[in-house]
Specification:
Blueprint (H helix, E strand, L loop, with lengths): L1 H19 L2 H26 L10 H21 L6 H7 L2 H6 L4 H6 L8 H17 L6 H32 L3 H15 L8 H10 L7 H8 L15 H22 L6
Length: 267
C-alpha cells in the first residue's frame, strides 16, 4: 500500500512546497479566502436582520446549517475543487500526459494540487460552528454527537463527488464550465440555506438529484429536533452516508464513461 501511495505523496508534497515557498503570498491567499467566508456569513446575518425565522430555522439554526455547509464545501474545494480545470487540460492536450502514466487518471488529477488557501474559508466556518453549537439547545445523545461530528465529513464527501460529476461532464461539453458550476457552487449556495424555502421541484432537485440537502440542512433538522417539510423529512438526515455513496457511484461511472469517450487532443 505504501508503494502504491508513494507517487501521490510525491505529487502532493511538491505542490505543498510550492505553495509554502512564498509565505507572504500564501498568507494573503488565506486572508482572501477567509474574507469570502466572512462575506457569505454577512449575507446570512443581513437576511436575519429583517426576519426572525427562515424556513423553520432561527438565526442560531441557520448558523449551524451555514457552518456545516461551509466546512464541507471548502474542504472539498481544497482537496478536489481543482478538477474543474479539466476543460483546460482537454483543450491543450495536457490530459494525454496523464493517460501515459501507469496511474488512475482521476487520482492523478486530484493529487495534482492541494489548494491550502481554502483553509481560510474553512476556519471561518469552524468558528461559526463552535458559536452555533453554543447558541442552540440540543438534547445531546451519543447518536447526535456522532451525527454532529460526521456531518462535515460526509458534507465534504458529497461536495467532492459533485466536483467529479462536473468534471466528467466536461468530456462532452468541453466549454461547459458554467453549466457544471451550477451544480457545484450552486449546490453549495443551496446547501447554505434551508431547503424548505425552495419550491417543491427545486427541493426535490437539491435533495434527490444534487444531494445538497444531505450536506447540512437535513442533519441540522435532526440535531434541532425539527420534523422537516414534505418530501424532505428530518429522518433523511441520518442517510447522508447513503447519499454520499450514491453520488460517488454516479460520479465514478460518469467519469469512466467520459474518459472512454475521450479520443485525445491529436497531439
Amino acid at each position: 500500500m505504501a508503494e502504491l501511495l508513494r507517487p501521490y505523496r510525491a505529487l502532493l508534497a511538491s505542490r505543498l512546497r510550492a505553495q509554502l515557498a512564498y509565505r507572504r503570498s500564501f498568507a494573503m491567499d488565506l486572508v482572501g479566502a477567509a474574507g469570502i467566508g466572512v462575506l457569505e456569513l454577512a449575507e446570512v446575518l443581513v437576511i436575519f436582520s429583517s426576519i426572525s425565522v427562515l424556513g423553520e430555522l432561527d438565526l442560531a439554526g441557520a448558523l449551524l446549517l451555514f457552518s456545516f455547509a461551509g466546512i464541507g464545501f471548502s474542504t472539498a474545494d481544497m482537496v478536489v475543487g481543482h478538477v474543474d480545470s479539466l476543460p483546460r487540460y482537454l483543450r491543450t492536450g495536457t490530459l494525454d500526459a496523464f493517460l501515459l502514466r501507469p496511474l488512475p487518471v482521476l487520482a492523478q488529477l486530484i493529487t495534482s494540487d492541494l489548494q491550502l488557501r481554502r483553509l481560510g474559508r474553512t476556519a471561518v466556518a469552524v468558528v461559526v460552528l463552535v458559536v452555533a453549537l453554543s447558541m442552540n439547545t440540543i438534547a445531546w445523545s451519543p447518536a447526535l454527537v456522532a451525527l454532529a461530528v460526521l456531518t462535515p465529513v460526509f458534507s465534504a464527501v458529497i461536495f467532492a463527488a459533485l466536483f467529479v460529476c462536473a468534471a466528467g461532464v466536461q468530456f462532452w461539453l468541453v466549454e461547459g464550465g458554467e453549466f457544471a458550476n451550477a451544480f457545484t457552487y450552486g449546490g453549495n449556495y443551496a446547501a447554505s440555506y434551508p431547503t424548505s424555502i425552495f419550491t417543491l421541484p427545486m427541493r426535490v432537485l437539491f435533495t434527490f438529484v444534487v444531494p445538497a440537502a444531505f450536506t447540512a440542512y437535513l442533519p441540522t433538522l435532526v440535531l434541532l429536533g425539527h420534523s422537516g417539510p414534505a418530501w424532505t423529512p428530518a429522518v433523511l438526515g441520518w442517510f447522508a452516508p447513503v447519499a454520499a455513496a450514491g453520488i460517488w457511484t454516479v460520479a465514478l461511472l460518469g467519469w469512466r464513461a467520459g474518459l472512454r469517450h475521450y479520443t485525445g487532443a491529436g497531439s
